[in-house]
Amino acid sequence: QVQLVESGGRSVQAGGSLRLSCVASGRTLNNYGMGWFRQAPGKAREFVAVITRSRGSSFYADSVKGRFTISRDNAKNTVYLQMNSLKPEDTAVYYCAAEISFSEQLRRRENEYQYWGQGTQVTVSS
Fold first, then answer.
1. Per DSSP, what are the bridge partners of residue 98?
2. For a surface tag, which of 29, 30, 42, 64 has the fewest beta carbons within 10 Å of its beta carbon?
3. How many C-beta neighbours within 10 Å does residue 73 have?
4. What's the rounded Cα separation, in Å, for the pair 105 and 85?
5. Is residue 116 packed enough to be buried (19+ CB in 10 Å), middle (13-18) or exposed (0-12)?
6. What would the 3-class secondary structure string for the chain be?
7. pLDDT tens per residue, the chain (126 residues)?
């Protein structure tokens, strides 16, 4: 079992930046591929970014490409999501998720992830 706790969400004006953190406990993070997802009010949860467990390859949703960066520090058991040039449409609850397939595939579907955090709210005002 791995427990995930997100932090860093808050209210920010459009054009601003935030860095979200996801700290894992219970297991070492370097065994897991890690993803960030988000859910806006009234909408389904959607994929944002993924980073593989060892090579650190990453992939992004088109809506955030060029603005968001996912990274990981396995020594700190932490995954980050740096969000720049924020837009009101980025407003959502952001979730980190872990998958233990021991592969280097860039997984983008919710059902490919076994562990989820409780989420952190990001609100971007215009």
1. 34, 115
2. 42
3. 11
4. 28
5. middle
6. CCEEEEECCCEEECCCCEEEEEEEECCCHHHCEEEEEEECCCCCCEEEEEECCCCCCEEECCCCCCCEEEEEEHHHCEEEEEECCCCHHHCEEEEEEEECCCCCCCCCCHHHCCEECCCEEEEEEC
7. 899 999 999 999 999 999 999 999 888 888 899 999 999 999 999 999 999 988 889 999 999 999 999 999 989 999 999 999 999 999 999 999 999 888 888 999 999 999 999 999 999 999
